[in-house]
Each structure stands twice: as structure tokens, then as C-alpha cells.
Predict the structure.
Amino acid sequence: MVSRTVVRGGLVITAADEIHADVLVEGGRIAALAAHGSATADSWGESADRILDATGRYVIPGGVDAHTHLDFPFGGTFSSDNFETGTRAAAWGGTTTIVDFAVQSRGKSLRAGLDTWHAKSDAQCAIDYAFHMILSDVNEHTLKEMDLLVAEGVTSFKLFTAYPGVFYSDDGQILRAMQQSADNGGLIMMHAENGIAIDVLVEQALAAGRTDPRYHGEVRHVLLEAEATHRTIQLARVAGAPLYIVHVSAEEALAEIAQARDKGLNVFGETCPQYLFLSTDNLAEPDFAGAKYVCSTPLRPREHQAALWRGLRTNDLQVVSTDHCPFCFQGQKELGRGDFSKIPNGMPGVENRMDLLHQAVVEGRISRRRWIEIACAAPARMFGLYPKKGTIAPGADADLVLYDPTAEQTVSAETHHMNVDYSAYEGKRLTGQVETVLSRGELVIDRREFTGRAGHGQYIPRGTCQYLT
């Protein structure tokens, strides 16, 4: 028997519409929408196995977080959320799909890296998941492997102009990978910072005794993000390839993206909540507390926030992801006491994204539909998941969030569900909270109680980017 659920009485919000409608769920997918009180909607209740009352609530698509790092190796340790804890926390925050990064180890095949990440995640996830592939070693063999991965639904590849000796690729390697993606339909994702120059500045800062966390932001200069963004956009133009710049943090890098888009190029940008709500003031917190906020690209001076919000409104930035890569303060961030370059780079946020962006709606920075666009629909389209994910329409997966727009909450490590010993937003007061979450029609969060399970989440092969012109 196919189960039937009716979500009744809510305001359905997608990237395109806001409508007062009931939603019929059958067999884990959206079957239909109908106006409140219509004969059609009323008839659904007679045969429903479950009726969820959404009166006074928003009914929104489950969030799609296209940038997470679960169980991720960095700086001699691993991110503190694994696929079980991280996907559970994501569900609490109204996110029902993540796209994580599988890592190719230097000298190894892409397939070996992908297999490792499948082993980490298999039967562990509370929500659905997919993978990007980090290219650490571009050569004839791995270029051919890119074609095979695209064919089986791993359709995006991340390269780095940062982290020499670890993930860094030179311009020739980047160009070759871009040429390959131009042919196979894949999307190149770029961590754009000039890592060679940054390493010089790190060495000079440490030699001068500048060892505190705040110097992490100073050596990873705004102009070195802008330079790498400009350079990789030009390489993409030469290759005729689309390009997605991850975690854009500064006005100068955004200007490079906007200029490329004004030329009609397939160049896209993502930012993250930490760049919209936090700043170098956090990096400068005393007693090494600034280490909590060390991530790359780094937090910027507060004046960059206005440019990023403007970029989200003008669609020069299309996506807000989290770059969720948490490390506990005790025992992990503390590895960098006395040397900021040894602080593991990354911050927690997978549970906070939807609420923080709703706060931006409350404050008038973005509209409700734009909230859903940048958090659900655009990432699903960008990475070949739409319309299965990212919208509420017949045929889509029944990934639904009943959201209370008037609930008030205070963000705290004491109440969050991420496996990390601090919150980057400790004490921040927010209006709006996730109340109930369905993943493919199954209750994962039921009126603020977790009812999901590890292993419910399914791996999703992806199509190619749906924005390419």
C-alpha cells in the first residue's frame, strides 16, 4: 500500500510562487497541490494515512546544502561531524539534501577516492546525499576518469588554487581539467585564493611573531581571492567551460564574477552564512577564541557584507551553502595555539543556514521566494538535482519543511545537534524555526522531535548543471 500524507493549511513557498494550498504526498513524492477548502483538497483527507496541520506555517522545500565536508581529513585531524551526525543536524535545520566532497588522494585514482566516501556514508545518512569530486592530481588518467564519473552522476569537480602541496593545482592542470569538463558536461568548482602568495605571507607573519588567529584573515588577503577568481575565470573562458566559485567572501572577488556574468559567461558564485553574518571582529576575539572562526576563504571586515547581500539580490551570487567543516575548539582548533597556520580550517553551520537566511527575510534583506531560491532551488538546479529536489511540485520528492515564521530561538551550542563543542552564532536571536521535516515523505523531524534514522538517506546520482547557456 502506498502511504498518503496531506499537509493542510499552510502557505506553500517556492522560488516561483507563494500560494495557500494543501499538498498531497503519495509514495514519497508530491502528487498534487490544491487550494485550501476546495473539494479536491477536502477529498484527500478521507483517504489520508496522515494529516499534518500547517496552519500558520510556511510549507517550503527541504533545503539543499551543496557544500559540506563530513568526516573530512584536514591538518592531521578530521572534521568532527560524520555522515550520521552531520545529516541528522542538517535535518534539524530544515536541510534534506547535502552534496559532500569526495577526495582524490595524490597518486590515487578518482574512483578510489569516491569509493572511500561511499564507504564512509553508506547506511549512515538521515537525509539524501550526493558527491562532488575533489581533484588533487590532474593527469592523463584522472582526466579520463572525469568522463566516467560524469556518466554515472558525479558531475562536478573541485580544484584549488590554494593549499600548495595538498590540494593545489597549477594553471596548466586547471586548464586541462576545464577543457575536459567543457567536453563532458561537468562543472568545475574553484577554491579561488592565490595559495603560493599566501604561503609567503604566512611565513613572514609567523617570523614576525604574528601568530594569533586574526592573522589568518590578514595573510589570506582580499586581493589574493580576487586575483585567483579573475585568473580562473579567464582560464575557463579559454577552455570554454562553466565555472562555479565556492565560498565567495569579499566584494572584490564578487566584482570579478559580476563582470564575467555581464559578458554572458557561464560563471556562478556561492557564498556562505559566515560571510554574511560574521567578520574579522570574530577572528580577533581574545584568548584564542578567534580560532573558532578560522576558515578559508577567511572572514572579512564587516563592510564586505553589504556587497554580498547585494550580490544575492542581483543574482551575481546564486547559492548560499555552508562549507560545513566543523572542528571542536578543544583538541582540534587548539592545535594552532602559537601558530595560526596550524588551526584546522573550517566552521560548523549545516544546522543554521535556513534559519539565518530566514532572519534575512525578517530584516528585509531578501524576499521569501529568494530565500527558497538561494537555499533550495538554485543549488538543486546548479548541481543537477532539480526538480527532484528544491521545489514543491507534482513529481518532486516529498522533501518538505513545516516552518514556523514567528517562533523565536537563541542559537547555542547547548541546543544544537552538530557534533561540535561551540556555535559560531552563540547567543544570536533568530525569528523562525523548523518545526517538522519530511524526507521523501517520511517524518524525520516531527514537531521538534527527531524521528529519522541513519540509513534512510539515499545516494543520488546527479544530472549536469541546468543553468548553462
About this structure: The first strand starts at residue 4 and ends at 8. The CA atoms of residues 405 and 432 lie 4 Å apart. The radius of gyration is 21 Å. The mean pLDDT is 98.
